[in-house]
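Researcher: We're teaching a course module on how sequence relates to structure. For the next exercise, students receive a sequence and then see the predicted structure as C-alpha cells, so they can try to spot secondary structure elements on their own. Here is the exercise chain.
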Amino acid sequence: MSRTSTIYVLHFDPPYSVRIGGTDRQKTAGHYVGSTAGDPVARMQEHCRGEGSPLVRAAVLQGCTVALVATMPGDKQAERRIKRSHHRERWCPRCTAEPLTAPPKVRP
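Model: And here is the predicted structure for the students to work with:
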C-alpha cells in the first residue's frame, strides 16, 4: 500500500518555455505536479531554491513566478495518474473555472 501524502499543483507565470534544438519549435510547461509527505508550502520553497524538480528550477531561472495553487490528499500512484493525464491545467484554479479536486480514479 502506498503512503498517504499531499499532491500539489504549482502554476508558472508566465509558462516556462524552451526552444527545441536548432528549430523554431518551443516546449512549454505551465504547471508542475508533485507530492510530499510534509508541508506542500515548504516543498514549493525547496523547489524554488533549486532543491527539487529540474523543471521548477529552470522555470525560476527563466524568471517565472511559481505559485502553489492546489493541494489534495493522495499518494505517489495518484500523482502519477495526474502526470500521465497530460492535462495538469485541469487541476489549476487559475486556468480552469471549475478545477478538478481529486486525482483520476484507477481504471479496472
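Model: If you want an answer key for the exercise: The chain has one domain: 5-91. Residues 5-91 form one domain.
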